[in-house]
Amino acid sequence: MKFIRLILLLQMACTLGQAQTQDQTGLYHGSVEAQGILTGRNNVPFWMRSNQFGSIPLPGASGSLIASGRKDYDSTSPDLTDWGAGVEVRGDLGSGSRLTLIEGYVKFRMSIFEFKAGRAKEIMGLVDTSLSSGAFVESGNALPIPKVQLSIPNYFRLPFFNGLLSFKGNLAHGWLGQQPVIPNGKVHGANTYYHQVSLYGRLGRPDWKLQLFGGLNHQAYWGNEQSIYGSRYWGLSTAQTFKYVMLGKTYKGSKVGNHLGSIDLGLQYDLGRVKLFVYRQNFYDEGALYKLANIVDGLNGISLVNKDEEVPDYYPVQGYYHADHDFHWHKIVLELFYSKDQAGYPWSKRTASGDENYYNNNTYPLGWSYKGLGLGNPFITPFPSTRKNLVNDTTDFFNNNRVIALYAGMEGSYLDYRFTAKVSYSMNYGTYGTSPWGHSTGRKFYPPKYGLFGKVNQFSAYLSVERDLDARWTIGCVASADKGGLFYNSTGFIFKIRRSLP
After folding, report:
1. Residue 336: which pLDDT band, with cuts at 50, 70 and 90?
2. What's the pLDDT score for residue 235?
3. Parallel, antiparallel, or unpaired for β 250-251 and 28-39?
């Protein structure tokens, strides 16, 4: 039955990719890709499974078939309205069989506004979206959450002050399905919703070399609070509950739902042949950032783009790089991820919520995850992905959220080969629940019950290489490896061939 569904979905994707008309060349795209995969029997290397939007191979020897198709907006049309759609399906066969809808959505544009419904690949926050180690809130690590969304997806330049100010943002409502919850120490399930809102601004006129960015995003898991806590305790209607969720208000001493977000700053400067982008994400999970108690934590990044070698989103034509040298770099990203502080030290500034305990939550035992995978930066790891001998506080799904990580990524080409390389080195300290101080609330500290995590180092690397055989056929391979004490040492290889449609 699964393979019948796969055939039908593949046919849908191929049809969307082939639905190109002569006067709409470039609006419709599609592809079918076959993969042969070999990894450790029980482990897929870190960068082979991270930030793949849930499109992860099975461990061991396996084969995969991936089909995708999309219709883009017509950027040359003077019409104020347009529509688009996309679908991507992955089928895996190896130690088991699996069929996954990676994305499937429709979208409608009216002037600067967009309405989108379905499961769509998105990243939330100011980062280099194609090469970052991962935004704090939503990095593309897990499957996209099904949602409906109203947004201004691209920066809209206000007509005042000669276009000095621009802004964009979104408001979304999503469905997480049945999620385990913990009322009064007993685990039950509840249909859970996803709330998301963001607002970002840009300062700089079109002819300026310098552009400044700033903004924030706010997300929450919530829903069915009356069934979770009981109608006698919970006196808010669903509409009132949603109001509390949107405003981040407290009810009977705590926020409604599991809230998380980041406040971001960025700077872009045109250096002529190179475009520089510097960004910083400040994290909030509880209330520490309001008092700047965890301000040392954050994601810091530098992105350099070679403007002479910028690659478009879709480039199926062989020999795109036409320059005078064999080696060309397109983009370089360097990042420092730091989440060790969390306002959890005894000498930290006092907050009522104590340590932030990033991605973990007292009501939702699976924390900031979806379908078993963390939604945010993959350096914060859930316990099923780490070595079994590492100490774990059983109340925390993410057993390692105190991290210092260095990351570097590069995109470029050599001769007719395109490549993407990633390398990271992290120092991991578990959670405050497995630290010498233990978790805290206000100034009250709770000694660790399960032992100390200590310090564990981890090195991970990734290399992807592709080459176009002609205008439609592409071959490639991926190699990835882990070495350290956080994950089991492993290597993995993928050999792939892709056919662009039509």
Report:
1. very high
2. 87
3. unpaired
Q: Are 216 and 262 in contact (CB under 8 A)?
A: yes
- Residue 7 pLDDT more than 70? no
Q: At 330, which amino acid appears?
A: H
**Across the chain, what does the average pLDDT equal?**
91
Count of CA atoms in the C-beta half-sphere (13 A) of 316: 15
Q: What is the pLDDT of residues 397-436, one digit of tens each?
A: 999 999 999 999 999 999 999 999 999 999 999 999 999 9
Cis peptide leading into 59, omega within 30 of 0?
no
Residues 6+ apart with CB under 8 A from 186: none
| Amino acid making up residue 42 | N
d(CA 68, CA 86): 7
Q: What is the DSSP letter of 52?
A: S
Rounded Cα distance between 438 and 357, Å, is 11
Collapsing DSSP to helix, strand or coil, 200 comes out as strand
- Residue from 220, 233, 221 nearest 183 by CA: 233
| CATH 2.40.160 assigned to 122-468 | yes
Euclidean distance between CA atoms 125 and 428, whole angstroms: 24
Nearest to 374 by CA among 339, 401, 341, 402: 401
Arithmetic mean of pLDDT, 138-143: 97
Phi-psi label, residue 415: left if phi above 0, alpha if psi -120 to 50, beta otherwise: left
Domains of the chain by residue range: 1-18+29-105+473-484, 122-468
Residue 375: pLDDT above 80?
A: yes
Under 8 Å between Cβ of 88 and 498: no
Q: Which of 76, 91, 85 is nearest to 103 (CA)?
A: 85
Asked if 386 and 401 count as a contact pair (C-beta separation under 8 A), the reply is no
β-pairing, 369-370 vs 113-119, is unpaired
| Owner of token pair 């393979």 | 3
Q: In sequence order, which ranges of 169-291 are alpha helices (DSSP H)? A: 225-229, 238-247
